[in-house]
Amino acid sequence: MRVGYRRVSTIEQNLDRQDLGIVERVFEDKASGKDTDRTELLEMMSYVRSGDEVVVYSIDRLARDLRDLQSIITQLNDKGVSIEFLSERLTFSGSSDDAFAKLQLQMMGAFAEFERNIIRKRQAEGIAKAKAKGVYENRKRSKKVSEKRISELKADGLNNTEIAEYLNISRMTVHRALKKQTDVAA
User: Fold this and answer.
1) Would the pLDDT of 186 be above 70?
2) Has this prediction a pTM greater than 0.85?
3) Considering just the CA atoms, what is the radius of gyration of the chain in Å?
4) Residues 160, 162, 163, CA angle at the centre, nearest 5°?
5) Which residues of 103-130 are buried (b: 16+ CB within 10 A; e: fewer)?
6) 64 within 8 A of 113, measured Cβ to Cβ
7) Exactly one of 9, 58, 93, 151 is catalytic; which is it?
């Protein structure tokens, strides 16, 4: 079975550019690649069986750090699953001992990790310069919303989305307030 895996870092981003060709099942995450604790990645890894092939658009869509990349590939190969990276034109399987492919994987994974570190460093430098000029402000917190009011609206039968729209706040704010109340009650 040919199984696809696609990932973007944020909910707003689009998965369309990651064309995997013909696959029988696709797992898609909208989460940062810095962690391997991604719902669809974990589900895909438990779903695949010996003889399956996992198709990923590019190495950086699977992992952002060399250790995670190697770990995921090893886990898949140990199950008898091969993995193909379309952009890099690399395929790894447990039955293949292609030393050149392994070297390429390690080099590309190291470059992806290096690039991520450079981006974070530049971001930190930019923030520091902006703070020195007095033009940088931390993200402003949304207006304080009464958790009691959120509970009242929930009790009135509104769902989280309706409460968020009514109070002009995010659904996550509603979710956190309701969770906090549930945790306190428990």
Assistant:
1) no
2) no
3) 22
4) 65
5) ebbeebbeebbeeeeeeeeeeeeeeeee
6) yes
7) 9
Active-site residue, 9 included = yes
Q: Which domain holds residue 47?
A: 2-110
Same domain, 173 and 87: no
Tokens found for residue 100? 């050149």
What CATH number does residue 11 fall under? 3.40.50.1390
Task: Mark residue 145 as left, alpha or beta (left: phi above 0; alpha: psi -120 to 50; beta: remaining).
Answer: beta
Q: Which residues contact 41 (CB under 8 A, 6 or more apart)?
A: 5, 7, 27, 29, 62, 72
Structure token digits, residue 1: 């079975």
From 110, 129, 159, the end of a domain falls on 110
- For residue 142, the model assigns a pLDDT of 52
